[in-house]
Amino acid sequence: MATTEEILCWIEKGGTLDELAKVLGMSKSLLVARIEFLVRAGYLSEIRSGNGCGSCANCKSCGVPVPGGGDTGMKMYLLTETGMAHVKNEKR
Amino acid sequence: MPLSVDERWDLIDKISKQTVTFGAYKHTLKDAIAELTVKPLTGIPVAIAVIYGFWSFFCDFAGTLFTDGFMVKLFDEHWLPWLQSVFPGGLGNPLYALMVDAGHIENGVLVASDTCFESFGVLTSGLFVPFGVVLWAVVAFYLMFAILEDVGYLPRLAVLVDTILHKIGLHGYAIVPTFLSLGCNVPGVTAVRPLETRKQRFLMITLLAVFIPCGAQIGIMQDLVPELIGWIFLTLAIGYLGFGFILNKIVPGKSPELVMDVPPYQMPMLRNIASKLWIRTSRFLLVAVPFVMLGCLIVGLMYLTGAMDWLAAVFGPLLMGWFGVPAETVAPLIAGFLRKDLAVGMIGGLMEQGIMTTFQVFTSVVLLCIYFPCLATFVMMLKEENWKEFLGSIASLVAMVFIYGGLIHLVGIMLGVA
């Protein structure tokens, strides 16, 4: 089972969640759960982006239900300052 | 004794393995397509095919079917001759020149224009550019874009171009504002908000404002200079990546890596596509039509008052000496502040009058793309950036225009075509 530090180190390298799950040898659902935990713990920040229109200025007032868009579109995760410091400490 | 975080996750994993039975997952066709479109070996050919299909539809639907098939005939063979015959004043009258046809000089004689591109009146070019050419290009672009969005292809494209975009301080998501800007730069600039750092947003806005032509401009380019459009896109792509690489080295700040969760493919819904198409197209019409007509009016007034000749005399040496384009290009460059599509249309008019060589047309169109964002994009940049960033964007823009414009001229001289 991958440690928190390992997950953070891999996230620092970039890629997709599917690739990351394969590399770490865990199911995607478990990886998502761990990532959500890391977001709550302040190590990662989550950026949501609809498929193009999700970031539109009118998104909140727009009534168009977008499949895979709006709140359920592409999600991106990146290390916060805390996360980066954690990775840095681990590398030392 | 309390467990550490990792020990707790280990325990969760053990419990779930003992209590949850996982059935064998059957790979579906959707999964296979999802994998094929995200792996570089198969994903890149698929991306090329998708973009080629997108472009073919754009050209055939907007250019061949609507503009050449209906609109050129309607405007040039019916609307323009009708206005020329009924509008009071006639050739040489100031109001007639502003509203219908400014005419042009042939062998020292002022002659009437044959096409709405040449006439440059508020009621001729002012209506032909937005309704005859650009509207169909915008509809074709947004229709295809909405389908790709709803299917879920864009996040996969983002994953594919991630490595390249990291070289210029961005990441895969930057393909979304870039693609969106090919429709209109205004929503493209708004779409940079999800980028994480100020550096990335600055880089993205600056590159969008300079190197990404909007759908309206592309539609006019496709109609006027189809044989040059490949070279124009190649030049802009080299500028986008080259100057992106340089800016990434110069601009301080971070460009962190991230992981992406790519959503599954979906069947597009007709209602969504129709709604998005309507929202975007109607917004375009609201912004573009008044600006194009205003642009025609301002440029017409500048010609009538002699201001354009004065500007051409002032900037002519710079345009000819540094960029290698004739002094007459000053009029499209001024119109380009309001609408780039209108400005490209004006270059078409100059081209039809035989004022420019092919290389000068190419250089002028590239210059028009890069020299300044249109007014609407300019306002949006002011809104999205703070003053320091905005001034930085403008300074970068000026530097890029002079360096790149001069470089294109130099290449032309070396090839013997400038």
Q: β content of chain A, as a range? A: 15-25%
Radius of gyration of chain A: 15 Å
Q: Which regions of chain A have little confidence, pLDDT < 50, spanning 5+ residues?
A: 64-72
- Tally of individual domains of chain B: 1
Task: Give the H and E element order of chain B.
Answer: HHHHEEHHHHHHHHEHHHHHHH
Q: How many beta-strand elements of chain B?
A: 3
Integer-rounded radius of gyration of chain B = 25 Å
Give the H and E element order of chain A.
HEHHEEH
Beta fraction of chain B? under 5%
Compute the average pLDDT of chain B: 86
Query: Per CATH, what is the topology of chain A?
Result: Arc Repressor Mutant, subunit A
CATH structural architecture of chain A: Orthogonal Bundle
Mean pLDDT of chain A: 76
In terms of quaternary structure, the protein is: heterodimer
Strand segment count of chain A? 3
Write up what this structure looks like:
The complex is a heterodimer of chains A (92) and B (418). Chain A is an alpha+beta fold and 92 residues long. Chain A has helices spanning 4-13, 17-24, 28-40, 81-91; strands spanning 15-16, 44-49, 74-79. Chain A has a single domain (4-91), classed as Arc Repressor Mutant, subunit A (Orthogonal Bundle), CATH 1.10.10.10. In chain A, strands 2-3 form a two-stranded antiparallel ribbon. The longest helix of chain A is centred in the middle third of the chain and has 13 residues, at 28-40. The two termini of chain A are 22 Å apart. In chain A, 46% of the residues lie in helices and 15% in strands. Chain B has helices spanning 5-19, 29-36, 40-86, 94-99, 116-119, 125-151, 154-166, 175-181, 185-190, 198-211, 215-224, 229-250, 270-305, 307-323, 330-335, 340-352, 358-371, 375-384, 387-415, and strands spanning 104-106, 109-111, 259-261. In chain B, strands 1-2 form a two-stranded antiparallel sheet. In chain B, a hairpin with a 2-residue loop joins strand 1 and strand 2 (109-111). The termini of chain B are far apart. The mean pLDDT of chain B is 86. The chains are: A alpha+beta (92), B mainly alpha (418). At the A-B interface, helix 1, strand 1, helix 2, helix 3 and strand 2 of A face helix 1, helix 6, helix 7, helix 8 and strand 3 of B.
